[in-house]
Amino acid sequence: QCILDAERDLQRCDEEIRKLRAKLDSLQNERNEGYRQICRYRSLLAPIRRLCPELLSRIFRFACPKTIVTDEIDCPVVRVSQVCARWRELARSTSTLWSSFYIDLDTSLHNTEVIKSMITTHLEQSRNSPLSLSLKASEQSSRLQFIVDAIVPHSFRWKELEM
């Protein structure tokens, strides 16, 4: 009988431990959600949110002086535009951020579609801003032809063209 009583006590303890672990997990999840909410509130009050668009746009111009177009999507102006909706809208409305780029076909050997997309995006987003273009290509290729075909219609906007 003593053994049976001890086994029941053990089962009761195990059941109580299981319930407490479930409660602990629930409280931990609740705490994590509370922490995330605090972070969201702090983010809303961050000083950078109080910067006027003109100043933020100027900061963007310093942070994104010239885009290097390769087959890797690692472009400062694109990164800036992915931070939040406000920054995306500001980056897209600041045409000068998109008007200076360097196209290196020698290191971009693979994904032509990415290069075409980056060039098209920059030409569209730069709207009527003067363009500063640099092009490096050691071979005659269809990619080079695409780039020439893409930028020639914008020749009236060329401020600088380096080949």
Automatic annotation (TrEMBL):
Residues 53-103 form the F-box domain. The keyword Transcription regulation does not apply. Residues 3-37 form a coiled coil. The keyword Zinc-finger does not apply. It comes from the Eukaryota. InterPro entries: F-box-like_dom_sf, F-box_dom. Keywords: Coiled coil. It holds the Pfam family F-box-like. This is F-box domain-containing protein. The lineage of its organism: Eukaryota, Fungi, Dikarya, Basidiomycota, Agaricomycotina.
